[in-house]
Amino acid sequence: MLRIYCGAYIVLWIFVVAECKIPEVRVSCIFSEDCVLPCSFTSTGGNANVQWFQQEALVLSLPHVGQGLGNGNMQFISNSASDGNASIMLKKADKTSKGRYKCVVNNKTETYVIAMVEAPIRMISINSSESGFVQCSTRDVYPAPVVQWSSEPALAPAALQPVTRISPGVNGLFTAQSVLKLHNISLEHVYMCTITSKYETQTLTASFKPQEITGYTGQDLIIPCKAPKHLQAFSAVWTFTRANKTSDILTYDSRTHKFSSSLDHAKLQEKDKAVIGDFSLVLKKPVASEHAGIYTCAFTGPKTQHLIQTHVDITSSRQGKDSMKYNLWMLGIVIGLIVLLGIVLIIKRYRAKSKRSPEKAQEDAEMQGMNSDKAAEDPQAGMKLLTETSASHS
């Protein structure tokens, strides 16, 4: 019987809690923008007594009680709340606006509101230095974001050991900078940086791909650069760095299809392919003293940035290099012929020696037969021959 009473009590308690459960609303507020915290109730026609609490502290009331509640950054949507709307507006939300709010109407809790304040990640930047460092960064973010590095194909964790610094500014927003040291730069890998907001509502990515190309004086050189397939509504910029001085070469906007160029010796390989992300560059008759250096192709989209950095070396002459290759080939051919001739001579000598051995054995046998016949005809001659033969063997 006791178990029955206890079971009935528990069921009743669960039913009461379910019936009396106060709704909870989550609201995402954008940093420095106005944000509405909702609260509605069933109006009885008269003026309602409304109170708003933040972390159990009274911050706003209607009719207004006290002065300075909410520090001037909160106000009711409606002055009387007679229409059943007790919602309030946070003016220019900042980090002090976040937290748990409670709306109480006529001494009865109507709504709990969880306010999250976020300065979204609006940009991501990636760049590199000649000393082998790659930096990924963003700024004016709240709360502090998370920065991660990866590569394709995947490298061992020991090969990716970035140093990340996240620091707050005077306005409370964070700047994130992460530096990756490429000890052994692999031209077969793409290095990727991912910045994610604390609430995981945003993820921005950036990538860096190194490559090397050798060109020849006076001969046109193509530097390949293609955007990721998924990238849309992007802008592209070619830059050239030499002696720590960087200058723009070409720019392109996929939305307006407009080009701009600042150098006569560089142009797109095919302008028509720029709309599909092929931004390959042609250097016309490059000269080592002027055009060797670092060429960077950067694609920037709404939530991404991709860099392809090419170290270009211009040699003084291709003919000299081709002549050296030709001489090496000829030397190899001559050596090969000499070795082949030597093998042929050895084989011929071996065969000739092998052929002479049976002939000599047959000749010796014939001579021995002839001597035996002579010995039979003349015994004295035979004895003499035998004696000579014995003497010769001894």
Provide a compact summary of the structure.
With 394 residues, the protein is α+β, with helices and mostly antiparallel strands. 25% of the residues lie in helices and 38% in strands. It has helices spanning 2-19, 288-291, 318-377, 379-393, and strands spanning 24-30, 35-37, 50-54, 57-62, 74-76, 88-90, 99-105, 108-118, 125-128, 133-141, 146-152, 163-168, 174-181, 190-196, 203-216, 221-223, 235-242, 245-253, 258-261, 266-268, 281-283, 293-301, 304-315.
Overall description:
This protein is of the alpha+beta class and 394 residues long. Among the domains are: 96 residues, Immunoglobulin-like, CATH 2.60.40; 86 residues, Immunoglobulins (Immunoglobulin-like, Sandwich), CATH 2.60.40. It is built from four helices and 23 strands. The strands form five sheets. An eight-stranded mixed sheet has the order 11-14-15-23-22-17-18-19. It has a five-stranded mixed sheet with strand order 1-8-7-3-4, with no helix packed on it. Strand 17 and strand 18 form a beta hairpin. The C terminus is likely disordered.
